[in-house]
Structures are given as structure tokens and as C-alpha cells.
């Protein structure tokens, strides 16, 4: 069992969930800086300003900002060939509206990418991972306003220019299709002007949500087309959360409901970003939802010109869709669904389904026929130190092993898989709950939900296991 020789093994993180240093070196306030911590039962909230009595986990996070050399050295020790991270827009343009970029922010990422290169690690950079300047929420209601497109372009062109010799692989918006769901709306479209409360409950009408998403799709297409024109060495990718959904029963009504669900959740955005136009099935959905999108001929042209080179997704779980009443529902970070009686779930209720990954990769590849990278996957779990002071995370190894086996089977099915970057390769703040307790890493960080912890790093059992997986190109699992 072996993956292709140049398979990009690595790990993934996001600026707002691990950098900390939220107001250091000229950085502006971004949306996650106003998001509090929470738990599965006590929802993470957004506030309109920093409140004295609330805890904001992004402010320090795991302080990658001051630990990046140590962390990248550990990634290199595991043998990473790629490291997926994101740039925080507010380090480069603190409010998004400045004329000139913040040099100190540019220097920070330059140092990070140079440090990766020192070890032969290829950076894979997400331009927007669940953050935008909060000033743009106040002024424009986030992505609801098309003026944000030009500001995003300015930011992207600045970082393309600066890092053109350091970064080859770029992703535009993290989990862009999450914008279709209530939680994703806040995290990604940020249409939350004046709103305080649970991030999953921000009141956004379907009309505003899809207009905002349209603006993101246009912005993505514009920067992809620009990159292709100016930097032919770049490889531009999309990024989707793939929420595999099966019909719960063979009742044709369930099959149709699952198809509709998959169209809107899993295929709509990537169809636009890869095929270059709105898919026909969305017409009916928009009509049923009372959504009216005015898409000009010029915009249609933009979408056509800005299609991506490779497809990427996160994959954590699957669920079932049914029209039958009374079925138990699952918990998930972005979309729910009915429980699958054949699957077990994580402590956070995410149904574990490695076969679903193989199935999904086949579906994706048959549809698009372009290279695919799984840029997030992993098990969020509570890691407890054993008596010997170590973390024996066999449950994580088991999860990852089964998903790597499934990826391998997909490659045998003919899928062109170019890489794998498990999520949170070092422990970081959870996006859905704002917790540290939900850990994904190969590297444990001594940081806890009450804000305590000395930020020291320790290897879990999965560290050496993954190192060996990479060294044997996936043969030794
Ligand atoms: C993806 C996001 O949805 O899942 C990440 O791109 C996120 O930002 C990851 O952290 C895991 O989700 P959570 O809620 O467990 O952090």
C-alpha cells in the first residue's frame, strides 16, 4: 500500500485558532477576536466589543505567533512536506480599509514561510479562514456588501506579491459552503453587524446569506483569475466542508431529500468554483426559498474565468437525511441530520465514517476530474495525561489510520489524491465551541479553557506514529 511518491503529507491550522497575539504588531480586531469560549452545551457567542467579564480564546490561543520556530521544527521532525495555515487579514490590513499594508504583519508570515522552506515544507495558504476585519462588519455587514470584494482583492494582491517566491499553493475561502449553514454564516460570511449572542443563532435571512455567498464566490473567482494571469507558478484551490449525507432509508422520498441536501450543501459552491457557473438545480432552490440573485453578464464572465486548479475539502463525519419524523438527530459543527445506526460518534457527537471518505472522494473525482487534497480530517477528543505523564492517544491513531486506509482505497479506485493535512496538527482552539479541551493535535499544548497553562509543547503517541506513516509514504499504519 503506497500513495504517489510526491504525496503531500502534512498538517493544518488556521491563524485565528492558533496564533494568538491578537493585538500585537499593529494587528486589527478580526471577527474571531470578538468570539467567546463555549462548550458543547454552552454556546460560543459573538460580542460587538471586547467585554471585561468574557473570555476570548483567540487572544492568546496557543501563541504560535511567538512559538512558530519551535512548532515548525516539530512539524519538520514528523516529516511534513506541507503545512496548511492561513493569513489573518487584519495583520496585513488592520481594518481592511487602509491604503498601505502593515509591514510587521507581512514580515511575520514571511518568517513563517521561510521557516517552513528551511525544512523543505511547502506552505499551503488559506487566504480567508473564518475571519475578516471586524471594522468591515461594522461598516458593511461583512460579505453582505459587494464593496468588500475590492478590499479582499487588495489584501490578496498584497500577499501574492509579497510571497510569490515562497508560496505556491493557495486556497481562497475556508469551507466556503459552510456559508449555507447558520453557524458558517457567522464564521465565514460575518453578516453579524450589531449582533451579540450565540454564533449559530445570528439572524440572517436566506436572501442576505446567498447574496453574501455570491460576493465571496465572485471574490474567489477574481483572485484566482488574477493569480493565474500574474503568477503562473501558483496552484489555486477551493475549500469545502464535505458533509457526506446518505438517505436514511430506501424510501425514494429520502433519496430525493438527500440529493437536494447534497446539491445545496456539498456541491453548489464547488460547482461554481470548478465549473464556473451557477448549477441549474439552484434555480429551483432559490425559487422555493424566495431568494432572488441578480447575476450580471459581467459577473458570469468573472465566475467562468476564475475556476480553480484543484479541489480541497475537510472531512470529519457523515449523517443521514430523512423525510420521516421522529428520527434522532446528530450533532455537528455545521450541519445536522439523522443518526446513522451503523456508526459511532466522537464525544462531540460527530459520526465517524472512514468509508464515507472513500465514497465522497470517488463522488468528487467523478464529478470534477481534477486533483483533490483532503486538507482537514481528525478526531477532536479530550486528551488526559496518563500516570507516566504521557498522552496515549490510541483513539486518535485509530481514527486517522482508518481514514488514511480509506484514502488509499480511493486512490486504488482511481481518485487523483495529492495530499493530506490532518486538522489541528498541534492542539488549538475549536472553531465551533471555542474550547481548548477539544484537541486534535499530534502535539499537546499546555493551555486550558480557563486561560491557564504555560503553553509548553509535548509529543503525544500519535506524533511518532504519524512520523512513521509519512516516512513509509503511508505503508506503515
Ligand atoms: C472545520 C474548520 O470546520 O473544522 C476548522 O475549518 C475547525 O476551523 C475544524 O476547527 C474542526 O472543528 P471544531 O469545531 O472541532 O474546531
UniProtKB/TrEMBL annotation:
Organism domain of life: Bacteria
Entry's Gene Ontology BP terms: carbohydrate catabolic process
Gene Ontology annotations for the cellular component aspect, listed alphabetically: cytosol
Assigned keywords, A-Z: Glycosidase, Hydrolase
One Pfam family hit: Glyco_hydro_1
Top EC class of this enzyme: hydrolase
EC number(s) reported in the record: 3.2.1.86
GO MF annotation, one: 6-phospho-beta-glucosidase activity
Family statement drawn from the similarity comment of this UniProt entry: Belongs to the glycosyl hydrolase 1 family.
Protein name: 6-phospho-beta-glucosidase BglA
Organism: [Ruminococcus] torques
